[in-house]
Design goal:
mainly alpha, 3 helices, elongated, DUF6411
Length: about 80
């Protein structure tokens, strides 16, 4: 379920980055802020579960940022 949600967010940010590059930064920052909060909260869980949760949200955060930047980069090449 989480993977599908993150994939959908990546697609939306990619499309926003391509269609309206300047306006895509605000949604990207909002998603980044939310995933950062989840990453910090997950890191507070005890033991290896905390590291696993923190890593999962960190990778999701990286993927969403990358998809938004790829949309803007694709727009600049067109």
């Amino acid at each position: 379920m989480t993977i599908a949600v993150i994939a959908a967010i990546c697609v939306v940010l990619l499309i926003l980055g391509f269609l309206v590059p300047r306006l895509s930064r605000h949604p990207q920052k909002g998603v980044d802020k939310g995933l950062g909060t989840a990453q910090r909260a997950g890191g507070k869980a005890p033991g290896p579960i905390g590291r696993l949760l923190s890593k999962q949200f960190g990778k999701s955060r990286k993927a969403t940022n990358k998809s938004a930047s790829l949309g803007r980069k694709g727009r600049s090449k067109v």
